[in-house]
Amino acid sequence: MSAQPDRRLPVLSGGVVTGSAWWQRATIYQVYPRSFQDSDGDGVGDLEGIRRRLAYLAWLGVDAIWLSPFYRSPMADFGYDVADFCDVDPQFGTLEDWDRLVAEARRLGIKLILDYVPNHTSIEHPWFSASRDGTRRDWYLWHDGSPEQAPNNWVSVFGGSAWSWDERARAWYYHAYLPEQPDLNWRNAGVRAAMRDVMEFWCHRGADGFRIDALRQTIKDRLWRDNLPNPDWWEGEDPYDALIPVFTTDRPEVQDVARWLRATVDSAAQKDGRERVLIGELHLPIERLMAYYDSGVHLPANFHLLKTPWEPAAVAALVESYEAALPTNAWPNWVLGNHDRSRLATRLGQRHVRTAAMLLLTLRGTPTLYYGDEIGMQDVEIGAELVQDPWERRVPGKGLGRDPVRTPMQWDETPHGGFCVAQAQPWLPLARDADSVNVASQRVDSSSLLTLYRRLLALRRSEPALSIGGYRTVAATDDLFVYERAAGSVRILVALNLGSHGEETEFDAGGGTVVLQTHPERAAPRRAGAIRLAAGEGVIVRSQAPG
Ligand code: GLC
Ligand code: MG
Q: Is the C-alpha dihedral spanning 210, 299, 294, 248 positive or negative?
């Protein structure tokens, strides 16, 4: 609770969380395993590579890693098409490599969050073969009919009809994504039990939580009703958006799936005392996101910052409406980048990477960082002949492909940025600036972006006001977004200039000590009174009420 209610300001939202869970205090770092570190010279990142880089993540100061899928997969969607949920793909290593990763992570105090893919399997999963030949028919979504006419108008996220005809089964099967990713039928008790076993397998083998892939899509309308045309869509946009997916996403029964998953991790926790977090991938408007808290998802992923204009009024309005919509005791979370969206340095521009870091790591709620954003990696243009992502292949030229944001991590100035040995061919090309934009050079530079991230993470860990304190907006002017985090007698003021014109803007911080600046070379008074911030600059000011 705020020690000194200030009548000029709106009430703190949240207050201080007592008895907070590890995932509320944590910062999560997303690793895309193909692209983090190759250890065996095949140009594809692997689990052993990640293990070798854990010391870096511990040094950086993150608390948990979320790993995109590394299960056995024919890689039609680079691991999001799973052929065996309980094994490691040979490209990524072995189950023993996983065990070694767990041991090292535990030693360093880093939690491991797995990507759990309940909505679909690979077409090569044995369950799908059994479904095609009729022994487990009801495990997937089949529709009889003639091969000429798809059952309804549902479309795939990755382009084209969401139905494919299967000659062996003489029926259509539904796939929200690729034809190589048939959707499971979550109304089937056998599917639910088998997928619970998968979760239990990984809980037992060291998982500290799960990011639930494509959760909103797990249940489809029983009556196969057509989706409705979207009046706001026009030719040339993402074809998936031509229809409003009311009958294929966020159906009320998805909440039952969420409850089932939560019960599964809770019962695992009862056995071994390790609390596990569930993060839901849910591209939904704020109001609809909130229902998932009630059904037990700890962190329904909040992607709204990815789409909000980088302007104080817009960002402040988002934070406030999100805070206001949160159910009691629901814990917020924020995302500024992932393996599906343009990188923040490219999206917002180089000028704003530092205020973006400061915002993400000082808002109330669990932040997720995307690998490489801490050094300012940019989207890398991929020549047509090098395209890997099936989305780009199926819907080319619309900027939907995700290869540009999945290029190898830039570690140092050696060949291939230290991602793989010189003789190897990385699966995606490195950024051309990897020689200069990399971990090694930024680690030793006290004014680098990486150093800023590290300082922010350290400050967040040492200041309860930042990790678990309340939030309130102080001001949103043309250029400045100013807010306060508070716990006990400590008040942390964060001021960010999100504007883009050259002039400095001044504001009165009302005293306190400047504890962090986005641009340390800028002379700011140690005691904060009037502070001047140019576009892209931010400061954090700490004050403590006497007594
Ligand atoms: C999620 C993942 C994306 C993947 C898709 C299908 O949206 O984030 O990368 O392609 O699900 O599994
Ligand atoms: Mg490898």
A: negative
